[in-house]
Design goal:
Bound molecules: flavin-adenine dinucleotide
Strand order of the largest sheet: 3-13-16-15-14-8-10-9
Oligomer: single chain
Number of domains: 3
Distance between the termini: 17 Å
Number of helices: 10
Radius of gyration: 22 Å
Strand content: 15-25%
Mean pLDDT: 88
Number of strands: 16
CATH architecture of the largest domain: 3-Layer(aba) Sandwich
Helix content: 25-40%
CATH topology of the largest domain: Rossmann fold
Largest sheet: 8 strands, mixed
Length: 404
């Protein structure tokens, strides 16, 4: 059963061809019999299980790694800092500390930051930082009619944001459970809704910056049985999305073992948004420049140097860099290591295997394999641990025994 529900070798070869009709015809032949029809899918406790469409196996091999990267999530227990303060003669709006949710919340947090200067007549802004938050904040400001200059030590693709996984994860390490106050939750839900709406306007664009993809969650034990998660040893994080923005949350459907191809007893399927960071960040940068934006390379040692800038309003979007720049120890580094495997455009699903430290996102610029270490919280080291990635890829290969 397992093998039959992955596309066979003929199907994979067809997928490499560009003709959609060839692919469809060949896939139909290769995948015989196709996934269990819904009407005959097994039921448990009266619940029908959704069958799995034929899936192309992932080529999980370490010789397919094109890059291993390490990036530091800028986590703050109290949530992102979106605050206005006066530093000398400059009005500074801070917009940093978005943990593992910076891409997901970027459009919402940009709007929130700009609301803090609504009362000012000034129409020129300096933005410090050219990562996910700086660049998105710059675009939202331009669209609102501001003239914007970005000052940053690094720009895309040499910023930390470029190394993220690239999935809609708006509640990932965004604050600790004890700081999820009603006020924070209201702010978070608004940011999530603004961002989500904006992302739907970027579907189907050239380069597929944003896509929706199926995601399979796999488990060796029933889902109601707890498993040590990748986040053990970290603070307790709040559950936000399913509770506060249920309309954005895609519930997962259980799939009977006989109706999915993975050699594990328990599986669920959900759907999630993927950010193809290479094309998406290029798109953001292009639009920023087309709207007259400038990027100046500059490293600030201290906020006193803000006085050198000609703009009176400064948006500080320095991410993890704010820790050193402002001496803000509330920012805790959370190390994250990812690897990209040679792209397989025919792989159109993601994976998360509970308890095995493994998550996979099917990006256009490569199959993204994330491997979580045991002591990532508080770790600011950026040297890759190649063995961690090799282990994750070996684990991934176990899901595709027919390719071994
Ligand atoms: C492994 C990993 C996976 C992740 N996956 C996801 C995901 O799937 N989805 C999601 O939504 N989020 C994800 N995140 C989180 C997300 O990547 C971050 O929240 C986001 O990148 C933060 O963006 P930023 O613009 O604040 O910071 P950065 O990308 O670090 O940008 C900071 C900018 O400020 C500049 N800067 C800093 N200090 C100074 C200074 N002193 N002077 C001048 N310039 C300075 C830098 O040069 C840079 O331009 C992930 C993070 C990690 C580590």
């Amino acid at each position: 059963m397992h093998r039959r529900q992955f596309l066979g070798r003929a199907g994979i070869a067809a997928a490499a061809l560009s003709s959609p009709s060839l692919l469809a015809a060949s896939a139909a032949r290769a995948a015989t019999p196709a996934a269990v029809p819904a009407s005959t899918a097994p039921a448990l406790g009266g619940q029908a299980f959704a069958p799995t469409p034929p899936l192309v196996p992932i080529k999980a091999a370490s010789d397919r790694i094109v890059a291993i990267s390490v990036c530091t999530r800028p986590f703050r227990a109290q949530g992102p800092r979106t605050e206005r303060e006066q530093i000398g003669r400059k009005t500074v709006v801070h917009n940093y500390g978005h943990g593992g949710s910076g891409w997901s919340l970027s459009w919402g947090t940009a709007e929130h930051a700009l609301r803090l200067i609504q009362d000012m007549d000034e129409r020129e802004l300096a933005i410090i930082g050219c990562g996910a938050i700086g660049l998105t904040t710059a675009l939202v400001a331009q669209r609102a009619g501001y003239r914007v200059r970005i000052y940053a030590a690094e720009r895309m693709p040499d910023v930390r944001s470029f190394l993220a996984t690239g999935a809609w994860t708006p509640e990932s390490r965004i604050c600790s459970a004890e700081h999820a106050t009603p006020e924070f939750e209201r702010r978070w839900a608004d940011m999530a809704r603004i961002s989500h709406r904006r992302y739907q306007t970027m579907l189907g664009l050239p380069g597929d910056p944003i896509e929706w993809r199926d995601q399979y969650v796999l488990s060796d034990v029933p889902f109601d049985q707890p498993m040590p998660g990748a986040e053990s040893g970290e603070p307790e994080y709040p559950v936000l999305e399913s509770r506060l923005t249920p309309e954005l949350h895609h519930r997962s459907q259980p799939i009977a073992q006989s109706a999915h191809p993975f050699p594990v007893p328990y599986a669920k399927r959900t759907t999630n948004m993927v950010f193809n960071i290479s094309s998406y960040s290029r798109m953001l940068m292009d639009e920023y420049l087309q709207l007259g934006g400038e990027v100046h390379t500059r490293h600030f040692e201290s906020p006193r140097q803000f006085a050198d800038l000609r703009e009176k309003i400064i948006l500080n979007c320095t991410g993890y860099g704010a820790r050193a720049l402002l001496g803000d120890d509330s920012i805790v580094p959370v190390r994250g290591q990812t690897a990209r495997l040679i792209p397989q455009p025919e792989v159109n699903y993601g994976l998360y295997w509970r308890g095995h430290n493994l998550s996979v996102v099917p990006r256009r610029d490569g199959i993204l394999v994330q491997a979580q270490g045991e002591h990532d919280f508080g770790d600011d080291s950026t040297a890759p641990n190649a063995q961690l990635t090799y282990d994750a890829i070996a684990q991934l290969a176990k899901l595709f025994p027919a390719l071994g």
